[in-house]
């Protein structure tokens, strides 16, 4: 009975999460998808390193850090364009996107330099 | 033309003068003037074979009495001699002229050679000189080396004429033929200072020998016994000055050179090895053997000719050096299989034994370690009886330059892919994010 209760709770939790998330604007959902994509790419590279070893370590670092950096910048963008977030209510989304682009350009310059 | 040649010759003499007056020099090794100090000029005839062999090998011997008041080793700051033979064991008090223990030690300290022989009546001056050289004669001034088993049959009661055959196993000191006969020895014992690693015992006494006053009742056990008694020792100082110290002056005498030896308990007589031993030891002491010099130290990258100012980590390099040995007449290629070179920074990173081509050219190649910093090529060759060779040459090693790293490594393609996919992702995301209504 207890097990069935837990399964029920999980089901309720997931469905309530899904219904809550469906209320999220599509704009933010796109960002979430982008973050997910970056994290999966990072995970794949870490798994690959685990298989073949650390040899071109600089290449490994730049590959993984480019993913992690991208994810972090995307999360920052998400925080700034979220209407619910009152902290950035004075910051126009256009400005947030420009910051995001600038940071990405710098990130990828560094990554290219370090990739070897 | 002739006058310019003369000017040049004069100039050469002026430039080379300090070199000509120095001790054994690699530029002019045949120049050897020897001062021989004697107690009594009769020694000149009683030890004539030894002196004659030195003269015939090109040494200028200058015989003086040890208490001659005009004795001087140097004049106007230049040494007058290249070597000193001190066959004056019983000179009392002070040596003649301005010669004293300090003057003789200064002579050795400036790279000159010394042969010193003692006998049963050795004075304190001679003992002091020997002590400074790392050799301590038995303090009992009456004592001589006595051996009741290994003595030469001469008279029944006298067992102080001993027969020694415990010689050091070193071709460079004793010549490559080895000493053929037993060595007659009548004199005092010495012990080698254990703290000094420069002193080497050439002839040591047999286990049955001891140092005591002959024909006297022994009240205390002898201070020196057995094989710890050294009879003849040599010293090679750090400046390559060589010293020969013998407890017996008679060892060098014509009488011992020529007298047949009959060891106690053996019925046959054999020729003594004294002459051979004395001559071989004098050859060694006067640098006719075992003096090495290294020239033409060269290193380069494999496949290149010029010596670079710097190496890169993991470079392949070649190191070569020529080593020659002085034979008394000429420099001859030195041949040994144990010359090693170190690639050294605080500790040796590479230690390799070098191959040689039989003409004195030692060569090896190795890879620079994967460590950068200021390294040295070091050859530290210290072999018993040979002068020590110490070469070091500093060379920096740099890491890879930015553009020397390997690129487009197969194993790194997934990482390249990850980075570029992030860039593409950023581009696509940017467009989608901007144009999404």
From TrEMBL, chain A:
<protein>
    <recommendedName>
        <fullName>Dolichyl-diphosphooligosaccharide--protein glycosyltransferase subunit DAD1</fullName>
    </recommendedName>
</protein>
<dbReference type="GO" id="GO:0008250">
    <property type="term" value="C:oligosaccharyltransferase complex"/>
</dbReference>
<comment type="function">
    <text>Subunit of the oligosaccharyl transferase (OST) complex that catalyzes the initial transfer of a defined glycan (Glc(3)Man(9)GlcNAc(2) in eukaryotes) from the lipid carrier dolichol-pyrophosphate to an asparagine residue within an Asn-X-Ser/Thr consensus motif in nascent polypeptide chains, the first step in protein N-glycosylation. N-glycosylation occurs cotranslationally and the complex associates with the Sec61 complex at the channel-forming translocon complex that mediates protein translocation across the endoplasmic reticulum (ER). All subunits are required for a maximal enzyme activity.</text>
</comment>
<feature type="transmembrane region" description="Helical">
    <location>
        <begin position="97"/>
        <end position="115"/>
    </location>
</feature>
<dbReference type="Pfam" id="PF02109">
    <property type="entry name" value="DAD"/>
</dbReference>
<keyword id="KW-0053">Apoptosis</keyword>
<dbReference type="InterPro" id="IPR003038">
    <property type="entry name" value="DAD/Ost2"/>
</dbReference>
<keyword id="KW-0812">Transmembrane</keyword>
<comment type="similarity">
    <text>Belongs to the DAD/OST2 family.</text>
</comment>
<feature type="transmembrane region" description="Helical">
    <location>
        <begin position="57"/>
        <end position="77"/>
    </location>
</feature>
<feature type="transmembrane region" description="Helical">
    <location>
        <begin position="33"/>
        <end position="51"/>
    </location>
</feature>
<comment type="pathway">
    <text>Protein modification; protein glycosylation.</text>
</comment>
<keyword id="KW-0256">Endoplasmic reticulum</keyword>
<keyword id="KW-0472">Membrane</keyword>
<dbReference type="GO" id="GO:0006487">
    <property type="term" value="P:protein N-linked glycosylation"/>
</dbReference>
<keyword id="KW-1133">Transmembrane helix</keyword>
<comment type="subunit">
    <text>Component of the oligosaccharyltransferase (OST) complex.</text>
</comment>
TrEMBL record, chain B:
<dbReference type="InterPro" id="IPR055457">
    <property type="entry name" value="OST48_N"/>
</dbReference>
<comment type="similarity">
    <text>Belongs to the DDOST 48 kDa subunit family.</text>
</comment>
<comment type="function">
    <text>Subunit of the oligosaccharyl transferase (OST) complex that catalyzes the initial transfer of a defined glycan (Glc(3)Man(9)GlcNAc(2) in eukaryotes) from the lipid carrier dolichol-pyrophosphate to an asparagine residue within an Asn-X-Ser/Thr consensus motif in nascent polypeptide chains, the first step in protein N-glycosylation. N-glycosylation occurs cotranslationally and the complex associates with the Sec61 complex at the channel-forming translocon complex that mediates protein translocation across the endoplasmic reticulum (ER).</text>
</comment>
<dbReference type="Pfam" id="PF03345">
    <property type="entry name" value="OST48_N"/>
</dbReference>
<comment type="pathway">
    <text>Protein modification; protein glycosylation.</text>
</comment>
<feature type="transmembrane region" description="Helical">
    <location>
        <begin position="413"/>
        <end position="435"/>
    </location>
</feature>
<protein>
    <recommendedName>
        <fullName>Dolichyl-diphosphooligosaccharide--protein glycosyltransferase 48 kDa subunit</fullName>
    </recommendedName>
</protein>
<keyword id="KW-0256">Endoplasmic reticulum</keyword>
<dbReference type="InterPro" id="IPR055459">
    <property type="entry name" value="OST48_MD"/>
</dbReference>
<keyword id="KW-0472">Membrane</keyword>
<dbReference type="GO" id="GO:0018279">
    <property type="term" value="P:protein N-linked glycosylation via asparagine"/>
</dbReference>
<feature type="signal peptide">
    <location>
        <begin position="1"/>
        <end position="23"/>
    </location>
</feature>
<dbReference type="GO" id="GO:0009664">
    <property type="term" value="P:plant-type cell wall organization"/>
</dbReference>
<comment type="subunit">
    <text>Component of the oligosaccharyltransferase (OST) complex.</text>
</comment>
<keyword id="KW-0732">Signal</keyword>
<dbReference type="Pfam" id="PF23358">
    <property type="entry name" value="OST48_MD"/>
</dbReference>
<dbReference type="InterPro" id="IPR005013">
    <property type="entry name" value="DDOST_48_kDa_subunit"/>
</dbReference>
<keyword id="KW-0812">Transmembrane</keyword>
<keyword id="KW-1133">Transmembrane helix</keyword>
<feature type="domain" description="OST48 N-terminal">
    <location>
        <begin position="33"/>
        <end position="285"/>
    </location>
</feature>
<dbReference type="GO" id="GO:0008250">
    <property type="term" value="C:oligosaccharyltransferase complex"/>
</dbReference>
<feature type="domain" description="OST48 middle">
    <location>
        <begin position="299"/>
        <end position="437"/>
    </location>
</feature>
